[in-house]
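Checklist before submission:
- one chain only
- standard amino acids only
- sequence pasted in full

Submission:
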Amino acid sequence: MKQISAVSSRLISRNASHLLLALLSFLLLAACAGRQGVGASESWSGIAVQPGSDVAFVGTRDGRVIELVLKANSRGVIQPQLGEVFDTADREEGDDNSRVGAAFYGTPAIADSRVYVGSYQGFVYSMLASDSSEGRALSDVGSFEIDGDDLAKGISGSVVYDNGMLVVVATEDTNSGRLYVLNAEELDANARQDRIERCRYPASDDSRIGRAWTTPLVINGIAYFGDLDHYVHAVRIATCESVWDAPAELGGAIIATPVAVNGRLYLGAFDRHLYSVDMASGTVSDLLTANSWFWASPATDGRLVYAPNLDGRLYAYDTFAGEKAWDYDQEGDVDPLLASPAIVGANIVLASDSGIFSLLDNEGRMLRRIGKAGDQVRSQLTVVGSTVYAHSLEEMLTAYVVVDDDLESEWVFQIEGF
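Returned file contents:
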């Protein structure tokens, strides 16, 4: 079965807890056989750090984008301060009772001094990234609304910026979705909708693809992404045309963003399998089987692919040898892994749904465990230098620093209003 009820789709839109319940309801109906893990999408917003600045941005589940100022005090200790706030509740589109409430699950993208983010209400926003002569941060807002059912459409992943284009995967109704390519400059200027949209896949008069709750991987002008109907797509963003003769079919629903190594995509699905897909032809290879679903996106150091699983294990697949290198069981912790791991030098930082962060070497040996038990992390981990930034379900923002083979807490910031 590949449908989710209209009731479930309404639940998705209300808040993160309802989203989780609706996702699980859908998965019990639509996903594949195997041990069912309890979790939620990794698409809770990660923290985006503006290059060359002391400013970061993060989305929240109540429809806000928050600027965080990361300035150090006289002792050199960073003490984050709340900066500007963009709130969808202040927008006209948030006043229409026929639409669902806004939420930001994707990580903001920062490019050319603009912040780009997609909401579960079905809007893509552009706003200033930092204070400048043009205005304060998170002002000068442009918006674009995707097509679809107001009670079911939405964007769960991140907006990807590529050479002046914005690539976003969206769900349009309870059964289907599309990929949109937008002109960033036109969105910045808050132009008419028809000037902002460059193209979409499939085209408006073509059959749509399955529901899509993911962030596309964009390489060399091609967007790669999966949908809940088990298909992986490769789309040329200049024309919104498929690169392959047909989408690649996996054995289960797909939420994870793939990683690319030597001409192949690596990603897992809800049938408990990790796959590789040839980027040129779409040919699929089945690599290994876990005990539960692959939900979070994998990470790679260029040889090993690190794939977290809802069974609580991190699987390392050696792309050179063509075999599993090792798996790590969190020292017996069976809490699901819903956040993509972070690569810092030769080490890996892993965040568990238990709230514990683990530092591993590339042979799967645990070097350090740290964190606040129960503070669940399901968002993308962001790495800048040796610092790893995380956003928990308790709306806690944290920064950890990798020092040699140790992991140290740098700062913690609680977002107010929850």
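Reviewer check: The radius of gyration is 20 Å.
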